[in-house]
Amino acid sequence: MQMLRPLRNFSYAGMLMLAGFATASSRAGIPGPEATLAVETLECGDIRLQEMNLQAAESPSSNQYVLSATESRIDIDYAPARYDIVSQPEHRVEDRTAAELNARFSTSADLVPFGGVGGYRGFTDFRSVWLDEYYRQLFTGVPGYAHVAPQGWHAMAGGRWSYVPGSAILQLTLVQQGDTVSPGYEPRIGATLLRGRDHLRTTAVRVSTENVLTPTVRSLLEAGATSTTGRGMRYSLQESLNWAVGNTLTLRAVVAGVHEQPAFNAASASLSLERDWNARWFAGLAVRGYRDNGEVVDPLIESDAAPALRTMSAAASVRWQGERMAVRLEGGPYRTRYDAVSTSSTQFARLYKDRNWTRLQCTASWSF
Q: Which residues contact 137 (CB under 8 A, 6 or more apart)?
């Protein structure tokens, strides 16, 4: 489940596809089919998010196929601004379903092509649901307003090249995505509503290199560029380090930065430590921080764009690893803090208010 601000109008299904493929690929050495079930919740006072993902992997003839299905629920208590005499508080629940198929093909020891397709129906985040309810109550029956059912698709292709076998891997990934989203609206004197974009196309490219720096340190450097309809180019850079401190301790650190033209900037960092006992029981602690400078272009103009955001999360985890089954539990607090909205956009103050969340996740996997 995506906790931090979405970096772009990517569907969560598309990002989950990439993460799921990477996870399945890391277990490619285990023979036979595999299955993974993950359930996650993220809750605060007025918003409750739940997601369940079921993934199955099969590896016939050295190729690998991963099929994934996701069911999500967004449950919010919508509350308009105090001075809003048109809108009313509303309890709203939205479900989203997604499915995807990924494949990895073994052509040689050094070059591995891969690809995937998927789609979804439903809202991808609580912000979209809140804004959809705001515009629905405000403009239903007004010429120019129309209900939209969010949905989308994605396709991904790429390749992994072991340019130094056993020590260095270069990966290139290309993504195409289309989304139908619930747009915003602006009233106009003597004319129909001005309707925002409800169809978006996204093209993204990511290049990464994974290197074994020492017998105990592994590095992953990722760079990406993304183009979405109506948005400036977005560039990202992320560096991850895994350090086997000893026989039983593993330290992981990640730092990342994003720039979107003309002036959006974001940065994040995370640190986690995991200890194992006889490669059977594992316990870990993790912290992560994120901040950006917001999406507001002109504070004097009314806008539903998000102000600057800062987040902090911490989590504790425990994992049991058996011969053919593994179970992992993780949970902890998650805090979001927004800058105050501008005086021209105070109707969105209850959307962009500070919240303290609780996050829980349970994952179980089997190999047959």
A: 80, 86, 87, 88, 90
Euclidean distance between CA atoms 16 and 44, whole angstroms: 23
pLDDT at res. 60: 80
- Binned at pLDDT 50, 70 and 90, residue 247 comes out as confident
> 96 is written with which tokens?
């989203």
Specify the higher pLDDT residue, 218 or 21. Answer: 218
- Sequence-ordered list of residues with C-beta below 8 angstroms from that of 332, at least 6 positions apart, any chain: 286, 313, 314, 315, 316, 358, 359
Residues 124 and 95 sit within 8 Å (Cβ to Cβ)? no
Q: Could you read off the pLDDT of 43-58 as tens digits, one per residue?
A: 999 999 999 999 999 9
CB 360 within 8 A of CB 331: yes
Question: Is pLDDT of 340 > 60?
Answer: yes
What's the rounded Cα separation, in Å, for the pair 114 and 18?
11
Radius of gyration of the CA atoms of the chain, in A = 22
Residues 6+ apart with CB under 8 A from 2: 12, 15, 125
Ordered by where they begin, the domains of the chain are 12-367 (2.40.160.40)
Contact 259/293 with Cβ under 8 angstroms?
A: no
Give the three-state DSSP class for 93. strand
17, 157 in Cβ contact below 8 A? no
Using left for φ > 0, alpha for ψ between -120 and 50, and beta otherwise, residue 215 falls in alpha
- Tokens 């403009």 correspond to 139
